[in-house]
């Protein structure tokens, strides 16, 4: 319930970076991992969270473009798997912070503190970049690495 209070107290522009009462007075447990969204919502407000969600939207659209232009079906399947991994983590973490899903400890990709989650995200991004590097053009010819 503290996460809902933190999200609501951010209002439009937030309380300011490092000035969140729910997160810094330890009312919000695990503020740097599980409840990072609530902490950011309190400090950055609706505007800051909207920018974060738009960034995730562009990020996910880019993954779908990579999947669409993949050179083979294996690359497409790997890309779809990573897309589903990222969207699942984003939806579950935000749902936990808004109180509509149970608390499971799933991190917010590329934002939550934690070495394993960050390493997994970077490995996924590296594989996605490899798929993008070897993607086919509309004429069916592969793009050379010098052209990118």
TrEMBL record:
Protein keywords: Cell shape, Membrane, Transmembrane, Transmembrane helix
Biological process terms in GO annotation = cell division; regulation of cell shape
GO MF assignments: lipid-linked peptidoglycan transporter activity
Asked if Transmembrane helix is a keyword of the record, the answer is yes
InterPro entries of this UniProt entry?
Answer: Cell_cycle_FtsW-rel_CS, FtsW/RodA
Pfam families the UniProt entry points to: FTSW_RODA_SPOVE
Q: Name one GO cellular component term.
A: plasma membrane
Question: What's the name of the protein?
Answer: Rod shape-determining protein RodA
The species is: candidate division WWE3 bacterium CG_4_9_14_3_um_filter_43_9
What does UniProt list as this organism's lineage? Answer: Bacteria, Katanobacteria
């Amino acid at each position: 319930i503290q996460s809902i209070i933190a999200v609501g107290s951010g209002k439009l522009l937030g309380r300011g970076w490092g000035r969140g009462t729910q997160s810094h007075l330890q009312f919000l447990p695990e503020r740097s991992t599980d409840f990072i969204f609530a902490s950011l919502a309190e400090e950055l407000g609706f505007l800051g969270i909207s920018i974060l969600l738009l960034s995730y939207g562009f990020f996910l659209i880019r993954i779908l473009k990579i999947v669409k232009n993949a050179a083979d079906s294996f690359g497409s399947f790997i890309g779809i798997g990573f897309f589903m991994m990222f969207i699942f983590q984003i939806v579950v973490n935000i749902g936990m912070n808004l109180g509509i899903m149970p608390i499971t400890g799933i991190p917010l990709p590329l934002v939550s503190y934690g070495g394993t989650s960050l390493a997994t995200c970077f490995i996924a991004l590296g594989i996605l970049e490899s798929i993008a590097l070897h993607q086919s053009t509309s004429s069916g010819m592969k793009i050379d690495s010098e052209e990118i």
